[in-house]
Structure formats: C-alpha cells, structure tokens
Amino acid sequence: MVFSPAKKYILFSAVFLTVAAAALTWFLQYRYFLNNADATWTFVWERAAVFWYSVLLMLLMLVFLTGLTRRSVVAVGVMWAIIIGITYVHINKYNARGFPLLPEDFALASEAASLVKFVNAGALLRTVAAIGLVGFLTFLGNRWVNKKFELQKAHASKNWWKRWGVASRVLMIVVSFAMFLNLTDFVRNHNGQRYEDIDWLNTQLVAWNQVRNYDNNGFILGFLYNLGGFRLAEPDGYGETRMVEIWEKYRAKAEEGNLVRTNLGEEDVNVIIILNESFFDPTVEFGGYNFRDFYPFDGGEILPSWRKIQTKYPSGFMYSTDYGGGTANIEFEALTGLTNFWANTVPYTDLIPRAGPIPSVASYLKTKGYKTTAIHPFTGAMYKRNIALGHFGFERFVTELEMDYAEKEGRSEYINDRSAYLQTLDVLESSEQNQLIALITMQNHLPYNPDTYERTDFTVTNFELEEGRRKEIEVYYQMLHNSDKYLGEFLASLDKSDKKVAVLFFGDHAAGIFEQVNNNETKEVRDLVRLMPYFVYTNFEADFAGWERLPTTTPNCLSNTMFNVLVAQKPELFFLLDTVCEETPILAHSWFDMQAPFVTTALSEYELINYDLLSGRKYWSLGK
Questions:
Q1: How far apart are alpha carbons 474 and 488 in whole angstroms?
Q2: Fewer Cβ close by (within 10 Å): the C or N end of the chain?
Q3: Is the domain of 408 the same as that of 431?
Q4: 370 and 461 both lie in a single domain
Q5: Which CA distances in Å does 138 have to 78, 131, 382, 480, 570?
Q6: Domain of 506: which CATH number?
Q7: 222 and 245 inside one domain
Q8: Do 215 and 330 have their domain in common?
C-alpha cells in the first residue's frame, strides 16, 4: 500500500507527538526534581500510572498546540520552550523557598519589574540561550518535515481553508481541549480534603502539603490541583448556628478577661510591630544541635544587640512557617492571629482581596483610638500589600516612594534597617494620638552578592561549601550584624523618647542558602533554620515576671503573646488563641513532618473561624 505524503505526515505526527509527549513529561519531571535523573527515573518506575497519565495529558496539550500552529514539530518546540521557562522559575523558587511553582505565583506577574532583581542573571541568560537553541532546532526540524512530506507543494493549489487545514485544526483544538478538561476534572475540582485517594491511579491527592503533592503526583497533576478556582474546604460543622455559638463563647471570655487587663489606649502606650526580613541567629540551638556546627564562622559576635535583649526583655524563638521566603504569609499570621495552615496558600493574593475586612491588631487598636500606619521600604504592590493592609485596618501605608530616608547597605538595592527605623521614629513623633506602627523591613533580603560590601567581618570556615556559597553566607552574616546594630540604635532612641512604646520584634524566615541544614535527614536539624528571634520590649517599667523566656510558637500566636506579656486588653479571637497556642503552639506543616496535628476542641473552633473570615459567610463578628 502506497501512502500519499499527506497521510505519511499524519502517521509521522501521531508517532512523533506520542514519543515527544513521553520525552517532555520525563524532562518536566527531571526539571521538577532539580535536574536529578535518579529521582526522575524512580518516579517513573514507582509512580508509573501517574507518569503515563501525565504523558496522556501532555499528548493532548501537544495536539492542541498542533491545531494552533499547524505543525507537530512547532508544537513540540513551543512546549519544550514553555517547560524550560516555567521550570527555570520553579527551580529558583524551590532552591530559595523549598516549595514548587504554584499557579498563584503567576498572580504576581504584574510585579515582574520588582521581582527581576531577585533573578540570577547567569542562570537567566542560560535559560534564554536554551530557549533560543530550541527555537533554532524547531526551525530546522520544521524545514526538514516540510521538505520530507512535500507539505508546501501539497497545499499550494488548495482553497485557503483547505490550504490552512482549518476544519481539521479546529477539530484537533476542540477535541483535545474537551478531553483535557474531562480527564483533569477530578484533580482541578477536588474535594479540598487533606487527603483524597485516587485508587485508579494508585495515588493520593494531598491538600495540606504541596511538596508532597507534587512529589506523589508529578508536576502536571500537582500544578492542575492548585489551578482550580481557589476555595477553602468547608470544615465539618460550619454554619451560622455554630459560628454564633463560638462568637458568644469568646465574646463572654473577652468581656470577663479584659476587666483585669490594661487598656493600652488609656495608658497612652504606642505599639510597634516589627517584622525584620530574614533576621536569624546563626548560633541558634535546638534538640541538641547547634546551627553553628554546620556553618562555623570566625569574626566575633554577629548579633550583640540581640544577646543583650535576651538578658533584659522577654524573648525567645518563633518557629517560622517558611524558609527562604514567604514573608507575606508570616506577616498575615502575625498581624491577624489567623493561620495559613489550612489554606496553605498566599492569603494576601488569593484570599484577602476577595475576603474584605479582616479583624487584626490594627482593626482592634483603631477601636481604642489608635492611628494605624504600615511601613515597608519597598514597592507597595508586592504581594498586594496595598490591598491587604487596608483590609486589616491600616489607615496609611508608607512605601519606599514616601520614605524620607533611603540609605542602603553597600551595593545593595534595598533601603536598610537604619532608614526604616528612622522613618518609624518620625511617624511615631508625628502625632500626639496613640499609634500602631507595623514595620516590614527589606535590608536582609536576597540576593547576597559577594560585592555587596567592600569587606566583611565574618569568615565561614566550612570549606566543604562551594566558595560562592560561602561568600553569600558571609555577606548575609554582615547584613545581620549591621541589622542588629541598627536595632540597638533604634531601641536606644526609644529609651530616650517621651512617648510610652511597646515593641513586638521578630524575624520572619532564614535566608534560603543553608542547604546542609534545610535538607538534612534529621528533623531537629531542619528545624534549626526555622527558629527566628523574637522579643517584647517596652521603654517604660513593666512586670515581666514569668515571661523571661517566651514560648516557641508560630507567627499566629505572636501578637497574642505580646498582649499577654503587657497584660493588655485584647480582641475576642485572642482569647481562643490562649488555648490554641498552649495546646498547639506550633502550627506548621514542617513541624508535623508530613503528619496532621491532634485536633482539639479549640483547634477545631480555630479552623472554623479561619474559614469563616477568609472564605466563608463571616458569621464571626468583626467586633463592631
């Protein structure tokens, strides 16, 4: 049987697209596992059903692209380039934060100009070159196919709709798209439970841990799982009757409890909450391990001000819910007393803009007559803070555009902490009205380029590390040292102020440059990089008896801890946090190490309130 060139091309395309689908799916997984071939082959053999199902979905995407481009070779080239591009972003994110690329990351596309400075220029150039090479190979391959199957000659004399294959291409697009939607419905419209067994694929969808979800189900299914219209799973028992019952319970507790607590407004106490970017103690100890044993250094004390604070004020270590990033998530928990544990997303971009007003420290202190100001020496659009902070009750948001101070560290692109603190002092002194000021700093943010400082005071003596990584860590340590110095200067200025001031200070997460600890097999070692300094300071006499050592807890408990240290009146939610933070002081996926926390009555009530405020009908009162 003799086939015409057109039929030969159809047969070639079918075989070529099938083989390419398998190869591209393998390549996508290879890139997901950070270019680890062994991990990729292990996934192929151990998760065979998931892998081949992903190949089928890849094939449908290639058929769709073939319908759009009219050429199978071009479709494969386009998909190859797309994979190179998105996995470049994934690898950078995973190395910095330990999390895979999620659809919500693209919600920040409008802030690309702000994010460019976080990109490794060398890696970006290699990625662009790789995409260029794919384009060149696609061009050559397409020319060969056109010549081999005489495609130009075959279409030369046909009508335009036949020449362009309109009917067959529309059919390919519609059928492939419809099949893709049908075959992915189960993963896009999942039930939102922590676990969902998919028996026919011999796998399990995981809602609460996306690293595990991607590892189990591959990049394609993992990404699609998060692509569906975001919604929180409605907890069991949610409804108006139950929520009003919980509200009345804690309203009564607040009415009684606040009778013996101080009204900060009546005492004219100004409150400053400081989230210090990447402020970390490189000598932290936990579970019998010392961080310095993994990253030893010479050069003296990195954080002398922090050492003095530990001996004078209530202090401890916060267990960060993130590593190498996630500032906005930690900020969300600290300012609201809510948690990202069940949502496991980026609340500032995914939930808060649609949720509207959210009760927070700011909204509560406004009811006590406070002015509320947030300061962030960077762009206000990052993580949509300009929207989220307004929903929290902040009346004013000072960004780098409005700041009067703009000193930077060496060749760093970020406004340093000294400038941030000077701006905070100016805001504090700008009004006779009591103030709440939330400061989110930027100085210690990556990158930690070796040429940031002309010289550094600290030398990392772990010579098993690559020289480039050692230099990054030394720059980071110098930043921390300077940040600690500026903190000391700030507190010294407050000591001299005529205004009464209470400060809650905490670091948000460690820099994402400590692989030996973060990737260690021992959980207690991994936990070292999650422990961030925090303390409560006052420039007036306060009774700190019993609070010399603050509990190790996650950000959702920090503001409540501050109110308790000050014996200050606080909102209804925080009376629930008294129990939650005692029974479950650490509410973070990394702490439970793939397990789920024991569900207490208080934790169940807490989950209901989180759902109600972030995604529900807001039966919980806003305190009005």
A1: 21
A2: N
A3: yes
A4: yes
A5: 8, 10, 37, 48, 64
A6: 3.40.720.10
A7: no
A8: no
Closest listed residue to residue 587, CA positions, set 576, 572, 603: 603
Q: Residue 439 burial (CB < 10 Å; 0-12/13-18/19+)?
A: buried
Q: Tell me if the pTM is above 0.90.
A: no
Question: For 178-195, how does the pLDDT look when each residue is reduced to its tens digit (9 = 90+)?
Answer: 999 999 988 887 654 556
d(CA 485, CA 186): 54
Summary mean pLDDT of the chain = 89
Q: Residue 193: inside a domain, yes or no?
A: yes
Residue 448: inside a domain:
yes
Range name among 73-77, 103-107, 180-184, 208-212 with the lowest pLDDT average? 103-107
Asked whether residue 232 is assigned to any structural domain, the reply reads: no
Of 227, 257, 274, at which residue does a domain stop?
227
Q: What tokens were used for 47? A: 């998760």
User: Do residues 501 and 421 touch, judged by C-beta distance below 8 A?
Assistant: no
Give the span between the Cα atoms of 544 and 567, in whole angstroms. Answer: 10
pLDDT digit string (tens) for 421-466? Answer: 999 999 999 999 999 999 999 999 999 999 999 999 999 999 999 9
- How far from 320 is each of 309, 354, 376, 519, CA to CA, in Å? 20, 26, 20, 16
Segment (H or E) for 567: none
How many structural domains is the chain composed of?
2
User: What sign does the CA torsion over 110, 114, 119, 124 have?
Assistant: positive
Nearest to 535, CA basis, from 550, 552, 557, 546: 550
- Collect all residues with Cβ–Cβ distance below 8 Å to 287 and sequence separation of at least 6: 524, 525, 527
Spatial separation of the C-alpha atoms in residues 166 and 576, rounded to whole Å: 63
Tokens 């921390």: give the residue. Answer: 480
Tell me which residue range forms the domain holding 463.
241-614
* CA–centroid distance for 169 within its chain: 40
Residue 614's alpha-carbon distances to 55, 125, 132, 140, in angstroms, are: 37, 40, 44, 52
Q: Is 409 part of a structural domain of the chain?
A: yes
> Minimal CA–CA distance to 13: which of 65, 57, 81, 54?
65
Residues 245 and 215 in one domain: no
Whole-angstrom distance, CA of residue 602 vs CA of residue 614: 18
Helix (H) or strand (E) holding 130: helix 121-148
Reference 477, options 323, 316, 300; nearest CA is 300
Which residue from 571, 564, 552, 416 is spatially nearest to 490, judged by alpha carbons? 416
